[in-house]
Amino acid sequence: MPLYESIFIARQDVPAPQVEILAKSFADIIVKDGGTVKKTEQWGLRNLAYRINKNKKGHYVLMNLDAPPAAVAEMERNMSLSEDVLRFMTVSVEEHEEGPSAMLRKEERSERPSFGDRDRGGDRPRRAPREESQGEVA
Questions:
Q1: Which residues contact 102 (CB under 8 A, 6 or more apart)?
Q2: Rounded CA gap, 100 and 104, in Å?
Q3: pTM to 2 decimals?
């Protein structure tokens, strides 16, 4: 069966237990139609890049699926009908990522230098200070 990654964003005013129930209901649709849900990750309440229906934040949920295309289509249809789901996206993948996703791996993100710690181009030659002209002033 094809492999998929599906992410949906639930409204910010929906409580976290209700988001888990939503994810479980979408997983039940996949299982009922002959697929399996390999992993479900709750990324929590995060800021949106732009407002969606007056929401500035949303609950993000990732699901790794091994399901027939008809099951994924039925799950997406139910997502589009749900008033609690702001956006969703499902993509086909070659293989699922092992372990936690990049969003949950904090140690990798903490290794990156912060804005103030960036190298300022140490190999670049510095400009010499400008010399003021000694010419006559007219």
A1: 108
A2: 6
A3: 0.72
